[in-house]
C-alpha cells in the first residue's frame, strides 16, 4: 500500500506582521498554503542543522 503521511498537530505562534506578509507571498509563488510553506521551511532547517551537527 501507499506510504502513510505523518500526523499533523495544530500549533499557534506569533510572528511579526512583515514576516507573515513575506511568507504568504512566497507560499503563493509556490502554490502552497502558508502552513505547508512554513512546514517545508522548518523541515529544511532541521535537516541542515542535523547535517551540520554530524
UniProtKB/TrEMBL annotation:
Q: Which domain of life is it from?
A: Bacteria
Under InterPro entries, the record lists: Arc_rbn_hlx_hlx, DUF6364, Ribbon_hlx_hlx
Q: Which Pfam families match?
A: DUF6364 (PF19891)
What CDD domains does the entry give? Answer: RHH_CopG_NikR-like (cd21631)
| An annotated GO BP | regulation of DNA-templated transcription
Its recorded name reads Ribbon-helix-helix protein, copG family
Record organism: Robinsoniella peoriensis
